Amino acid sequence: MATDLSMENFGSMIDNVIAGICFFEYDGGNETMTPLFINEGMFRMLGYSRIQGMKLMKKVEMNIIPEDLRIYKQGIVDVLKDDGAVDVEFRTVTGSGGLRWLHVRGNLYSRKDNKYTILTIIQDITERKNIELELHRQAERLHILSEAEGEQIIDYNAKTDVMVFKSSSEYDLAGEQIQNRWMEHFADSTIHEEDMPYYRSIFRGLLTSPKHETVEYRTRRFDDDYTWYQANLTSLLGPEGYVTRVVGRLINIHEKKLKELELLLRAEKDALTGLYNQGATMELIQNSLHENKDNGMLNALMIIDLDNFKEINDIMGHAQGDQVIVDTANALSDIFKGGDIVGRIGGDEFVVYVKNIDSISNADILADQVVKSVNFSFEYEEQLLQVTCSVGVAISPYHGNDYEELFKKADKAVYTAKANGKCGYRIYDAATTMAYHATRKNTAYNPEKGMELNHDIEDMVMQVLFEDKVMESALKSAIELITSKYHFHRGYVCGSEGLPISATVQFAATGYEIGRETKEHYELNRVVSEILYEIFGKATIIHDYDLTAEEMHDYFQAEGIKSMFYYPITSHGDFQGAIIFENHEDVQLEFKKSEMEELRSLMRILEAHILQIGFMDRLQDFATQIAIFDNMDSFVYIVNPDTYELSFINKKVLMASPEVKIGDICYKALQHRDTPCENCIAKRLKKDDPHCRCTEELFNYSLRCWSRCSASWLECKEENGLVLLNSIDISEYFMG
């Protein structure tokens, strides 16, 4: 089938290539580089709007890492020789602050006097460079390890299922051993049967993604005796994009392990549960922290404190209380295995230490499992009694490197969890921790200085929401970030039964905690938020002196609220709930215009996440995509053409029309109509053509301006597709 390659189509194709196609003019007299043409793909690749990108490209050298400027300048010299294409690689910074490797292929297009036109093709090669760097590091590591006395080197090829053991020590098996079909015959290996499941799970985890793991296990050597080894293993990505090798070293730790086991045998176990007692727990954790302080891995210390345990003990007796303790110990033993340390340190208090967690979100997952597992109900004389738990988490090395410091911070986190409703968990200083978590790829973090929450708050919130798969814990972390950023005292989300949250999700700053765990208080919050919607009807700052309704004034007085930021959650024009942040000091809330715009933008993100609107669920790299749309110097909407529901509006729309919200019906919110537009531009897109595009000029009643609106598929589907509408203000041109 022939394709119409008109100049307009050809230009559109060049613009949409996700690579840089750029023409530069180089002035040999003053050695300056001026951009003549840059396609849209270049800006999308680096995360800039066209306006931002063109400003930066006028000073190209400022965007290149100083160490790589020499390579860049030599590349220009080579291009000007006109001996053919020249390839160079250097690093630059993206719009979101990330570091990216670029491959630039340039050649001389034309020359006139002392001015040269250079054509360049630019590609993002960051992933390839990272793989090369990791392979180089592993090669160096293996070279060093191969010289180590008393150690074995292992090299497993996942493609061929071949394991190679190399040894330079007379103590171990000398020379090189090759074992074919290693995973297939894993059950026949010499590893002790008690250690086999843990070792197998670790190895299979290494094959799923590139990571580093340390595992201790027993293996049989020449006779029937078993020897303890420590395996330090690293899995590597191949050029195909999946793990192809696992390399590492085996260290003989038999003598050390025997002494450690002797310590465990001497240590008194807790008589009731069989877990480690307080002394043994503290010593084992302290030893582990000391041994692994320089390995660069994260470790989590958790304190588990039972809620309402005293009530069970007093009402039902100590026998039932003891059974609750035993059931709790069994639940913890089911969750934590292998090298984890689980101990009972008090009547109803437990400590768990988890080694080598991959990320902070893994600690979230484990703590959430504990909260869900330690939950017991009893009926006594027609009264329902319930025992739950509150969990506090501290992360090493961010919150400390010794047992005492981690314990104190985890204990404070337990107090915060109890003060915010019990039956939950908190990570110590979670706002700072999650801020680090959200920006860990781009920001150096100093655990002694912490992190100021004064930049990229939207990116942090979006990362938290989309990395934490448990909605309520994600919302809590996001609310805590916003509370810390704007110095609120309490923040919470409450709503109707239709919202996908089980109850009021809340956070209170230290010193402002209150018990809001009762159903009565949940209902009160919902009723209050509904009354405020009837009074104000939109996002607003409310001061206590603004309230004329007596019941609202009494509520503010009883709760100690001086002022609040109120944001109603609506869907299709119906009230669903509210996001509320409270201030409890006499100083009234005051925000600059830019801060109010940022707050409304944050509320828009939280609202869309709570309502689970389609666009939010579908983007894999949400933060990057939003940054692109938000920084476009035009009005951007994303709409479902089947339901007419707005799935996204960018900041420029939000600034011009703060009353338009995600979830609104587009023709009602944008054109103030009761029925869909007769010739809806979104409806004109063909569902069997994902490259279909339509443009028309119209008057936008919401923005009060003439605009040129372009519509294209963001996601082309038979049902519930997504259309991108990009609208440019042409009032001045149109009226002229």
Q: How many beta-strand runs?
A: 27
The first-level CATH class name of the largest domain: Alpha Beta
Class by helix and strand content? alpha+beta
**Overall pLDDT level:** 79
Write down the overall geometry: flat
Q: Please mark out the parts with pLDDT under 50 across 5 or more consecutive residues, or reply none.
A: 436-455, 614-624
The gyration radius over C-alpha positions equals 31 Å
Q: Could you list some keywords that capture this structure?
A:
alpha+beta; 23 helices; single chain; six-stranded antiparallel β-sheet; 37% helix; Alpha-Beta Plaits; Beta-Lactamase; 27 strands; 736 residues; flat
How would you describe the overall organization of this protein?
- This protein is an alpha+beta fold.
- It has five domains: 7-124, Beta-Lactamase; 129-257, Beta-Lactamase (2-Layer Sandwich); 269-428, Alpha-Beta Plaits, CATH 3.30.70.270; 447-612, Beta-Lactamase; 617-735, Beta-Lactamase (2-Layer Sandwich), CATH 3.30.450.20.
- 37% of the residues lie in helices and 29% in strands.
- The chain contains 23 helices and 27 strands.
- The strands form five sheets. Strands 8-7-6-11-10-9 form a six-stranded antiparallel beta sheet, sandwiched between helices. Strands 12, 13, 14, 15, 16 and 17 form a six-stranded mixed beta sheet that branches. The protein has a five-stranded antiparallel beta sheet with strand order 2-1-5-4-3.
- Strand 4 and strand 5 form a beta hairpin.
- The two termini are 43 Å apart.
- The model is unreliable at 436-455 and 614-624 (pLDDT under 50).
